[in-house]
Amino acid sequence: MITREPDYFEPPLNPFGQFGRKILLSCRGAGRALLTLAEAIVFVRFMFSRRNRHEVVYQMFVTGIKSLGVITVVGLFTGMILALQTGLELRRFGQEVNIGTAVTVSLVREMGPFMTALIIAASVGSAIAAQLGTMTVSDEIAALEVMSINPVRMLVMPRLVALAVMMPILAVYTNVLGSTGGALVGWTQLGVSLRAYYDNAIQYVTNKDLYVGLFKSVVFGIIINTVACHQGFSATEGAVGVGQATRRTVIISFLTILVCGYIITRLFYS
Amino acid sequence: MSLIRFERVSKRLGGRTVLDGLDLTVQKGETFALLGSSGSGKSVTLKHIIRLMTPDEGRVWVGGDCVSEARGRELERIRRRFGVLFQNAALLQWLTVEQNVALPLLEKTPLSEAEAFARARERLAALGLEDARNKYPADLSGGMQKRVGLARAIIMDPEIILYDEPTSGLDPVTSRTIDRLIEDLRQRLGVTSVVVTHDLHSALAIATRIGVIHQGRIVEIAAPRDFIRSRNEIVRDFLEAQYITRRGAWEESDRHET
Predict the structure, then answer these.
(1) Hey, CA dihedral for A23, A27, A29, A30, is it positive or negative?
(2) Are A143 and B79 a contacting pair at CB < 8 A?
(3) Taking the CB of residue A253, how many other CB atoms lie within 10 A of it?
(4) Model pTM?
(5) Which of A54, A133, A211, A253 could crosslink A245 through cysteines, CB 3.0-4.6 Å?
């Protein structure tokens, strides 16, 4: 059951008690978020059902198509900045022709999925938390439960599928644009021909780089959805509570993406 | 025959005792109005009936089912007996009026979309909302949202309807329209209703029995005619606060009975 009774605890006796309680409540929140995720994964088998397919497609549209503008700008300029910074250093050693490798490898392995995840967490994740938070505080979630309509199946599962499918696609889009931005900077400011840039880039990017990057994107999408839905469902106290849930979604998503990004890199590259 | 029964139900929220050994029985087919001042435990009582809250002590029964201990499919089965009109209607904002009303049919019955929407339109027409069916909830007035919420609450032909402050925030004319709809539903469909309200005029107009909750306990239960004669101090305060004299209330009660 998503609808929960408000928590109340006696004030702690000292700062240690307060700190300990925060740790315990965080663990409980993480546990509830993971249970919601598990339930949503169980419902994924209904994604093509009459009731859910329209919502899944709509959420893919919101996550993918509506985010294209900002991702285009961020992807292009990320590649351009990377190319400029590494190119200026490499030129000191006469190695500027290698910017293709530097830019593309760092984008495919790390920066592409990471930058995409940050943008989606800030835009789509916060929007999910705000929508579900508003629904929670205005009793819409309670109304669904009273009608025996499972909010996880109706609201969480379509967003989970949309984020897990669209994130790798958006990450590839960011990689392509970033690499193109790097090539433009190399050509116009560092004198590296486009042919040399792409030959160099393709030579050092491996299949492993590609699939690890895509795997990271899927994990980041799942993280954003899980955090946003849990925070939305946990919202209390009207508009203020919805605002807090949205803020927490962005912060927790960023931190979890950073930590998980490191763990995945460590698992595959050490 | 009792349909809803509270057995010594206690509940603490925010460090405060909201329900304190509450005993309450609602009979089948009646409209029971639960009155009380803000924070007296009215809405908490209502939430216990549909298990949006669980008692700290005691039990809540719906027919032969203990709703306070039900889980999973059993809870789903019990909840199917209910229709609920929430205080702010709780309509899904991204669905149209028609989609909101048809939602339970689409989700919980094997009806086709055409059949579900046809039935939704039928219910909306009965509540005078046929012109609003393609609008979104945000485009409706408070009274219309309540009527849409009511249409959604009755779409599955429930046995029991719960109303949480059905007239709060509405002007007196719209409030009386909602009252008439509640009364009409009882007469036409024979449903059992529990109405949580602080609108005494409304309670006197629609209820077959009125209960007053104060500090987590029921302090008075009576039929409307006996209610206004009550010598209970809390009831008297309530009556006087809403400018209801014995004569005035009698007239109002009589008007709706005829």
Answers:
(1) positive
(2) no
(3) 26
(4) 0.86
(5) A133
DSSP strand pairing (B16-27 vs B65-66): unpaired
Reading the block at residue B116, the tokens are 């579900």
Over residues A65-93, the pLDDT tens digits come to 998 999 999 999 999 999 998 988 888 88
How many C-beta atoms surround the C-beta of residue B232 within 10 A?
Answer: 15
User: Do the Cβ atoms of A149 and B50 come within 8 Å?
Assistant: no
Backbone angle region of B140, left / alpha / beta, with phi > 0 → left and psi within -120 to 50 → alpha? beta
**pLDDT tens per residue across span B78-124:** 888 899 999 888 999 989 999 999 999 988 888 888 999 999 998 88
The ipTM assigned to this model is: 0.84
For residue range A236-263, list pLDDT tens digits in order: 878 888 999 999 999 999 999 999 999 9
Q: What ranges make up the beta strands (E) of B54-191?
A: 57-62, 65-66, 82-85, 160-164
Q: Which residues of A198-220 are buried (b: 16+ CB within 10 A; e: fewer)?
A: eebbeeebeeebeebbbebbbbb
- Start-to-end CA distance of chain B, whole Å, equals 26
Assess A55–B contact: CB distance below 8 Å, yes or no.
no
* Residue of chain A minimizing CA distance to B87: A139
Contact A8 B84 (CB under 8 A): no
Residues A264, A203: Cα–Cα separation, whole Å: 24
Contact (CB, 8 A) for A221 and A163: yes
Instruction: Characterize the bridge pairing of strands B31-35 and B209-214.
Output: parallel
